[in-house]
Amino acid sequence: MKNCMDKIEIIGLRGIPDIKENDDIAEIICRKADEQGVGLREGDVIVIASKIVSKAEGRLVRLDEVEPSPFAVKIGEDMHKTPELVELILRESRKIVKMKFRHLIVETKHGFVCANAGIDRSNVAGERNIVALLPENPDESAKRIREGIKRRKNIEVAVIISDTFGRAWRRGHVNFAIGISGMKPIKDYRGTRDIYGYTLRITQMAVADELAAAAELAMGKSDRIPVVIIRGYDYPRGDGSSKELIYPEEKDLFR
Amino acid sequence: MKNCMDKIEIIGLRGIPDIKENDDIAEIICRKADEQGVGLREGDVIVIASKIVSKAEGRLVRLDEVEPSPFAVKIGEDMHKTPELVELILRESRKIVKMKFRHLIVETKHGFVCANAGIDRSNVAGERNIVALLPENPDESAKRIREGIKRRKNIEVAVIISDTFGRAWRRGHVNFAIGISGMKPIKDYRGTRDIYGYTLRITQMAVADELAAAAELAMGKSDRIPVVIIRGYDYPRGDGSSKELIYPEEKDLFR
For chain B, N or C: smaller number of CB within 10 Å? Predict the structure, then answer.
């Protein structure tokens, strides 16, 4: 029975502690994987919820220490949002894509199009008043964790930093990849032929986003499983970036 | 070691034959799962590429038998597309959402926003001239297959019909759920509290889309693995529809 090639495992890591600034996430992942008896293996994909990366990198902000601009105050009033939160959203953004129905969809400094610049109020130190910003450079965060794992275990893995995004046209949120290291985010089928020899036209799968989505199934939302191992997936090796998942504006149909 | 709760398996079914009109997909899935030694189990999610469902339901069309309207001819010329293909796209659509850069993004009769109404030229009977339309009613297709499995195996499973979609703002395609039976497509965290007791605001995860995305990792594109079993995921039980994944236009930020 040689079905190992077709089986992929999604393994949630239990017992990750509440992450504090300067915690070593690579060390914690290696240790928890060992404690759980699954270990880390060459070729694993490690998907990490951005929230714990933000915490380790000190990306928490107290809302009462933020001085909202007049524009933030006005938007806050119009959209029924805390002006201090709006101020932070604007600081993390380079463009407002859509303001409608109390939703503030922006393009972040990284280039991600999402609500509220990805700023999150849940699971942050137990205080409603503290929010978590996205990591400053999620690709770099992923790289540091990947290198930390390599230093400890001498194995090559891929690391994906994920966050929960809404989508145009479709209800509900899904997990996307916002930081990547040790893999290419897109699997390119261009030039390959289908089983009839016809050259495929839909050719580029955003596998990093699909891996992030798969990982979310094991994360749940309030279950304290911010790290998931995906084992047995033959990801595209190479030195990729989450930027490859973002359309440049001049090629984007919807900006 | 009680980690079975946190482990989800993605199992690609090998050896699915080329599907012909009126083939019994439920029977084929049950048989191939048994042959592979994995069987089907209560609580499995079966993700099925829409293409084989279209083939079984006779949703193939010969392009040279299509009479393009003058409008389809004009769009075809402007966008460098076969006018017969444009004609079929228009017939499958109720609205054109965007025409730009040779992309024709429509709202299908089902309500899905996607390129070319989901019409696919690859892997269809070995002929460039034959295309596959999406199933007429993918929820009904999923239900028939789920009931066929239940009849044969006396187990409850969830069935998802999936297809490959592009997204706004993000490069690359991912697999989405276009037909659902035996589960709810959205996992609702509204009212649940995070680990600090703060009520969660981002609360609705589109788990059917995440399951479809996870399945694609085992499908590949030209590998003849159109059926994937996802085992060990505690999906939201109930009688759901893919329509729940579509924003009604009046609530949509981007239509």
Answer: N
